Structures are given as C-alpha cells and as structure tokens.
Amino acid sequence: MCSKRIIGAADSVTRDSIAKAASRQFSRHGVDETTMLDIVRDAGISLGTINYHFGSKLGLAYEVFEKAALEACEERNAAYDALEAAAGDGPVAIDAIFRILFRPYLEGDENRRQLLIYILQQLHLARRDLAMEIAQKHLNQVAIRTIKMLRKACPHLSEREVSWRYTLSIGAVLWVLSDCGPDNRLKRLSAGAADASDRQQLIQQIIDYVVGAFSRAGGGGTSAEEQEA
105 φ, ψ to 5°? Predict the structure, then answer.
C-alpha cells in the first residue's frame, strides 16, 4: 500500500511533480478511473519514473491522499489549539468547532478539497483499505478531539447523542458536497431559491444546520443495552 518513500528523505523535483500531477488526476477522477497513462501525460515523465519513486499507482495514491489528510489535520489541530486557548476553562462555541472541522472540505485548494472529500466518501462506503488506513492514522484523532470538544459545549447531550449527531452531521455534509455543481439537484428542486454551488450560502447553511442539531435538547431515551443493565 505505502509508496517507496525513504523516511526522512528529501523531496525531489521529479517526485514532487509526479505527486502534483497525480493529485490533479485523482481529485478529478478518483483512483479507480485514473490511469497511470493519465499521470504520465500530466507530469510529462515516463512510467518507469513513477514506478521507481512510488512502486505502483496505489503507492502513489497513498502518498497523495495521506499528504492531503495530514495537512488538513495539522491545520485543524492548530486552529483547535487556538480556540481552546481563547476559551480558557469554558467551552468552544459549536459554530467555531464546525467551521474549523469543515473548512478543508469547503475552502482552500480545490485539488486537496476534492481529495479529502474522496477519502470521506470511500470511508462511508467502506470501499478502500487506503481510506481506512489514512483515517486510522490521521482523521480519527481529529474526530475524537472534535467529539470531546462538542461534549464540553453541549452538556445537555449525552455522549451517545453527541456521537450520533456528529456522525449524522458529517453524513449530511458529505451528501451535499456530492452534488454541488452548477446544476445541483437542490437548486432544481427549490427553483433556484437554494443553490449548493453558492459556496458562501453552502457554508452558512451547513453551519446553521449543525448548530441547530447540537443546540436542541436530547430525547432522553435509553438504549436497549442500558435498559437491560
């Protein structure tokens, strides 16, 4: 699965150009639909050069996707650190938490944004070992930290309710992001009143949605396991 990178080795111009070409291709077409020939043409190098540096398409894909995930997680953790420092002993506002969490999926470099959405889609579909491995190595730590911050911000909710609402919120965002082109279904259904391709409208509606979900009191019900206990 992993590429042939030597730990601690310096990046080369060739290796970097291959990774950037692969990033463009994977972000547009995904891993399955991208061929080695696509990457060769984009990078302007030979197939043997890709194999020398990365071993295979999957090795190259792993490095490209891991780099995107690592950068996003480092940015989130740095922003979370700043929010918690500013909040002191108090909770961080729900909207601030989610603006940081969702930012890599909604803003910034378009190639990286699409790569991260692809990882999330593959995770929810349970289709790729690559996505599972990257999630375990990088994304899960941020998810656990986010849930912990939300629990502090939402004392009216149980741990189970916070975990459920976090997961449902991620699912809702993923669903919207899967269809946010100029001719998105939301735009058609609403006769243009709501448009998922309008990035500012999309961001604000997502934040309003998740804040509403976490602000509402819990149902107070118990699970079957808790009832039996």
Answer: -85, -15
Note the pLDDT of residue 18.
Answer: 93
Specify whether the CB–CB gap between 2 and 59 falls below 8 A: yes
Q: Could you tell me which residues come within 8 angstroms of residue 182 by beta carbon, excluding any fewer than 6 positions away? A: 197
Delineate the domains of the chain, giving CATH numbers in brackets.
13-55 (1.10.10.60), 65-216 (1.10.357.10)
Give Cα 225 distance to the centre of its chain.
32
* Residues of the chain falling short of pLDDT 70: 1-11, 125-128, 220-229
The residue with tokens 């729900």 is 94
For residue 218, give every residue at least 6 positions away whose Cβ sits within 8 Å of its Cβ, in sequence order, or none: 156, 157, 158, 161
Cα separation, 34 vs 23, in Å, equals 10
Pull the structure tokens for residue 190.
Answer: 């609403």
Sequence-ordered alpha helix ranges (H) in the chain: 13-33, 36-43, 47-54, 57-87, 94-106, 110-125, 129-134, 140-153, 159-177, 185-189, 199-215, 224-228
Name the pTM for this structure.
0.84
